[in-house]
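[job 4471] stage=fold_predict status=RUNNING
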Amino acid sequence: MAYRPLQRGTLVFLSGPTSHLHIVMNDPVVNPLTGLSSVLLVNISSIRDGIPYDDACVLTPENCPHAFVRRPSYVYYREACVKAADDVTQKVEIGEFQTHDPIPAEAFAQVCDGFYRSRFVTPKVKRFLKYCW
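[job 4471] inference complete, writing structure tokens
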């Protein structure tokens, strides 16, 4: 059975110099701008001492028990992106993206809420949110 990106699912792939956890924010929906079945992905990055970060949603091993969340991390809303579901599936099938366990429902709700609190969400992502939730 082929991989299909689904809401709350997670993917790990190279983003910058290291691998990062990405959350699939929605089941595939048709993006009216492209006509393609699409998903919204958002990156989780570790909080580093002395480096500013978006505090709209902070995940810790306590509030997000997930094997990839081992230290305080933040949702990097600035880099949230809309991807064609078929492209994501292809990248999983060729091994460029690795699937991981879904995040817990409570943590997912916090990530969703952060899209409305963060001042870094792009207008393109805000438009897409209207179609996927």
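[job 4471] summary: The first helix runs from residue 85 to 93.
[job 4471] exit 0
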